[in-house]
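Example protein as discussed:

>
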Amino acid sequence: MFCPNCGAEVSEKAVVCVKCGVGLTSATQRNVGNQPLPKTWLVESILVTLFCCLPFGIAGIVNAANVSSKFGAGDFEGAERASLQAGKWTKWAFWIGIIGVIIYIIVMVALGGFAAMMNR
């Protein structure tokens, strides 16, 4: 379980957070248990960063990392927003990478045809 105030991991049986001293209630424990963790997009963000588009992929990784930490701190709306942002940046990185590869192939084919024409 995580402290709703500071996000520190605490024992399920803890009454007070050892890091910030905030009291932990059974209502807080039930609230965390009822909320599903939003999709983090972490694996997808890392893959598009490595293979497609570095700048947008890094933005995806940063937002993906925020999903779990915000969720653990009890900021469920913040976790959902971070998940949406991570998904957005990951998708942008993927499509920009695909478009870049297509443009590269078109340019290489065009230059190859031009070079062949010049060799005649």
